[in-house]
Amino acid sequence: MGDRAVCLLSGGLDSAVCLAKAVHDGFEAYALSFDYGQRHAVELQAARRVAQRLGARDHITVPVNLRLFGGSALTADIDVPKGRDTASMAQGVPVTYVPARNTVFLSLALAWAETLGASGIFIGVNAIDYSGYPDCRPEFIEAFEKMARLATRAATEEGPAIRIHTPLIALTKAGIVRLGAELGLDFSLTHSCYDPDAQGRSCGACDSCLLRRAGFAEAGIADPLPYRV
Amino acid sequence: MGDRAVCLLSGGLDSAVCLAKAVHDGFEAYALSFDYGQRHAVELQAARRVAQRLGARDHITVPVNLRLFGGSALTADIDVPKGRDTASMAQGVPVTYVPARNTVFLSLALAWAETLGASGIFIGVNAIDYSGYPDCRPEFIEAFEKMARLATRAATEEGPAIRIHTPLIALTKAGIVRLGAELGLDFSLTHSCYDPDAQGRSCGACDSCLLRRAGFAEAGIADPLPYRV
């Protein structure tokens, strides 16, 4: 049996590929999702399907109501932008940014990892198709890892230092799609859209849909998801 | 109107003194408490009283169910140790340690601070009456502050860098009691016990009660709380 790792799993393309990589690398995977008041709660169903199919040892969904703080189009009543080109996506921090989201998610992953005696946390951030989120960059991940060493039993040498694994950090979206295909991931289990309809169908036009579709197109692989437009 | 600051408020002695200090220093205080499945939920009532009395601009209690992860006497079914001397308290990480608790709390404070445009977070940790918690030490706080700069809009210079204020970090428990008295804090509003009875009365013998009582005794100030023993 391999080392344990906590794997952040939103149910989106990136986190599913990231979990597949952790399992492929021999980790015993503990998948962790959050119900944080996101508009696209349908992704939590996707997370459940992905965790099950990939053989995660356990899967917890933790409710953390980030709506209490407001401040993002993903959690408050602000419109999700549609049909933007990648140049405008890259300008500044977008309204879909949820303040300190990855910090909150990694901290809760750290709490579970310490309890499990896990040696790693997997997170599917990537810094290439840069979406303007400050908490997706390597400098942030390194600073979090350093802080985590001082925050836990590792600081007093009563526990392992916990490594933050970011296998997607240097990949383009097309590269992520290719890696997922190599690992045999069933892409139809994943969900990426920020603004799905009542049936859970993707809008096809929000930043997340556009990046996903461009990635599949560039990789020359068919995206099995149905889109409204 | 002063700068905004998010103040972590458990309802215990230390966090109440810390909030009083933030208000005294001219910050517009936003008090933040957590319902994390702690045994001593009576402290949340204390937090409400303290926030109100000290004139916090707002007070939110965020549910974060750390029981989902288990691993601590404060959240799982492990007995709270009683009647220990300070020497045994100082040995290793105690069972009342909640894995990565301060990291989780500071991360959520960071999310709120960023939404509010606050310039600071106040946390009542102290490293002198060292209780064996790794996440109460200055090295941890510094590493968290550095990580926070990279995690938020401050990283792209679209927001302020958020400072972590730890006004109690170099104080003994007696020093904290004296500071609270100087600031005019009504100590009867606070709650410290890890294992209160059904009426909310303090046990008088857990680590937290023992440290509190020793602090009041050393400061030569009467503790207004009733104790069972």
Oligomeric state: homodimer
Report the total helices of chain A.
Answer: 7
Compute the average pLDDT of chain A.
87
C-alpha Rg of chain A, in Å?
17 Å
The residue fraction in helices of chain A comes out at 25-40%
Structural class of chain A: alpha/beta
Biggest beta sheet attributes of chain A:
5 strands, parallel
Low-confidence residue ranges of chain A: none
Question: How are the secondary structure elements laid out?
Answer:
The structure is a homodimer of 229-residue chains.
Chain A: E1 4-8, H1 13-24, E2 28-35, H2 42-53, E3 58-63, H3 86-89, H4 101-116, E4 120-122, H5 138-151, E5 163-165, H6 173-182, H7 207-219
Parallel strand pairs in A: 1-2, 1-4, 2-3, 4-5
Helix pairs in contact in A: 1-6, 6-7
Task: Explain what this protein looks like in three dimensions.
The structure is a homodimer of 229-residue chains. In chain A, helix 1 links the parallel strand 1 and strand 2 (28-35). The relative contact order of chain A is 0.18. Chain A is α/β, with parallel strands linked by helices. Chain A has helices spanning 13-24, 42-53, 86-89, 101-116, 138-151, 173-182, 207-219, and strands at 4-8, 28-35, 58-63, 120-122, 163-165. In chain A, strands 3-2-1-4-5 form a 5-stranded parallel sheet, sandwiched between helices. The model of chain A has no long low-confidence stretch (mean pLDDT 87). Helix content of chain A is 35%, strand content 11%. Chain A has one domain: HUPs (Rossmann fold, 3-Layer(aba) Sandwich).
